[in-house]
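Today's session is about reading a structure prediction critically. Students often jump straight to the picture, but the first step is always the sequence itself: look for stretches that repeat, for charged clusters, for runs of hydrophobic residues. Only then move on to the predicted structure, which in these notes is written as discrete structure tokens rather than atom positions. Here is the chain we will use throughout the hour.
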Amino acid sequence: MTISWYGMLLGLFAGLGLVLAIFRMPVFRRPKLDDRLAPYVRDAAGPAAYDLSDRVFTPFPTLERILRPYFRSGAGLLERVLGGGAVIRRRLQQAGLDMRVEDFRVEQLIWGAGGFAAALAVSLLLLVSRGTNPIPLLVLCVAAFVIGVLLRDRRLVDQVKRREVRMMAEFPTVADMLALSVTAGEGPVAALERVANVSKGELAREFRFALAEARTGATLVQALESVGDRTNVSILARFVDGIAIAVERGTPLADVLRAQAADVREAGKRELIEAGGRKEIGMMVPIVFLVLPVTVLFAFFPGAIGLQMVSP
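Below is the predicted structure for this chain, in token form.
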């Protein structure tokens, strides 16, 4: 790399440091109205309205606490750019994560910063060793940041899907336990409490949330409907609706629970058959492109060698 490139990098870092020093002067750091009013209304609005939670996102908690105001500003900027806070909040509920939208945006920033740092290291290596044009490298760094942000959102979607799969696997057993408890003479609330305390898993956790809501003043029907709203599993929503209708109208609850459990098992069998049908095509790939060529080679290779030996 020539001396001009070293001078350009030196001028870039010097200019960046000068800009940071200027914008951190007291003239440009006047507190906002929200920051000035926060100490007086913190007790009324709660500390969560003005600061991030105590969640640690990186292996460096001390550095993270120092940079927390910047995380807060970056999370707000990312929320304004991307939007969709209501969708993210619902996905967090569906994934069973005890996380706010601001915390999720901070994680997106950290993932994007990690991608940007990796791309920047590769770009500097290429710039020093080969003298590559810096414009494509800058585009690469920005693209790495965007990919990191999108990968965190994709991971949230995958977490929601995995939780739904676990709930579907737990559902028949939980429904049978509820049916047994109701058949033994317990009421709907007592049966739910017994199953929620004995069982472990995502579905039992949702039932514990519903019971907590019922204890705070909501009716059992409303608490069960909130379980269906928090999840995206249609079978679970129908199950909750069936329990609510049985409680309201006084129909035999045990029969409803057994029928719901049988429906879930049948749905699981259908999904297994469909998954097996989809996997058949994937199983043909190694057979056609690996096993079949080797078989043909073993069949024709001895004959080809024999013909070469016989021919004059």
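Discussion point for the tutorial: The CA atoms of residues 228 and 237 lie 5 Å apart.
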